[in-house]
Amino acid sequence: MTSSPSDVAKIDVVVLAAGKGTRMYSTKPKVLHTIGGKPMAQHVIDAAKRLGDVALHVVVGHQADLVSSSLQCAESFVEQREQLGTGHAVAQVLPILREDAITLILYGDVPLIQTQTLERLVAGCTAQSMTLLTVTLDNPQGYGRICRNTDNEVTSIVEQKDADPEQLLINEVNTGIMCIQQSCLAAWLPLLSNSNAQNEYYLTDVVAMAVAQGIGVTSVDAPSPEEVEGVNNKLQLGALERCYQRRLADALMLAGTTLADPARVDIRGELSVGQDVFIDVNTVFSGNVTLGDNVSIGSNCVVSNSSIGDNTELLANCVVDQATLANDCIIGPFARLRPGSTFAQKSKVGNFVEVKNSSFGEGSKANHLAYVGDAQVGAGSNIGAGTITCNYDGANKHKTRLGKNVFIGSNSTLVAPLDIADNGFVAAGSTIVKTVLADSLAVARGRQKNIEGWTRPSKKS
Ligand code: UD1
Ligand code: MG
Question: How distant, in Å, are the alpha carbons of 284, 301, 305 from that of 289?
Fold first, then answer.
């Protein structure tokens, strides 16, 4: 039997993100520190959104304005003015939670939580039962412990600071993540007390209340400790960053990409790859990057918000930002492609060439040591070593336009605005300030004069 939409539980998601994160020693609120270039709380929001039709609420407190303006797509941000505990935090959202919905409570500083795990929590939450995500740790220090009776049923959660020596030996701990009917929260949150070791209103106390009311508490085992690990300091942030990167690297390899070393590629955004792509060590991708089929990325390349066509090779040590490369290009080593640069197929850019806001036509080349800015380079043109487009007059930027099959000799200075028509030829060492017509040669340099029998200056005694 298939379920009709009315059978599907309505889900309200509450993300707790009010804490300061003192141990991060940062002016930035903890939940905005990033994993894979994205704020931790955004990872949590995105995992929840993949559940489908959910209403999302984020509880903010410390630097509330900054946190709410930095996160995308929460239905609402609710301010918790004083951080009086996790139970108090959820109580701030209670008035806007839907009466006929279940509430999924997540932590903004537990970034690697997966949607599949949340689905299991949601599935187990009924009118008669709440679900609790737990994990068994070798070292449970600091966490709330899960207490069970002789029938192995969950009876309560006791916080580290309130636990007796026997309870401290329990290895099964509370991840903090739970799913519970709104009606239960409405009944129990007002009953929470702060008479405990931390003088906080503990959300975890609802577990004992559920048991007392005959509501079952179903525990769901987290698939791995990393998935439910919280971040309190930079050491934990660094460890989870590595876990996250490893996840992405594994997914890439399983989809057919060859990574020279899966531990030495960093993806800080969305990377989409074609078939038979090779990525060498120490590469960093950020923002939206698309790689076509047979693309090869050399070691130490940094590629941001760019698209790279089939068979194109980035040799080692290139920096590519907001550039578009067509098929069969060869770039680098040591090239810098800056925003607004486009390369038609079979174009080549070699070592120590900087390109900014320029277009390279099919098969055009700048193989060594050049600056090409605000330029249009026609198909088949060749820019010699040491060529500079003087695109800036100190106040304004100007364009340089090269037609097809233009040849620019080495060490030329092209003073923009400038046009060089098809088949134009510039002699090496020229400073070109005027239009060069089609099929003509421009020479603009001092003539060489040889003085025979020249005596070198000698050193004075
Ligand atoms: C909490 C749980 C503990 C669990 C642990 C897992 C309680 C009482 N304890 O403890 O059982 O093992 O998480 O990491 O819930 N927050 C607010 N407002 C507040 C307090 C906290 O928004 O007033 C947010 C924090 O920003 C954080 C989350 O809630 O994202 C957890 O708070 P934290 O103080 O870290 O709780 P723990 O003591 O770690
Ligand atoms: Mg914590």
Answer: 11, 13, 5
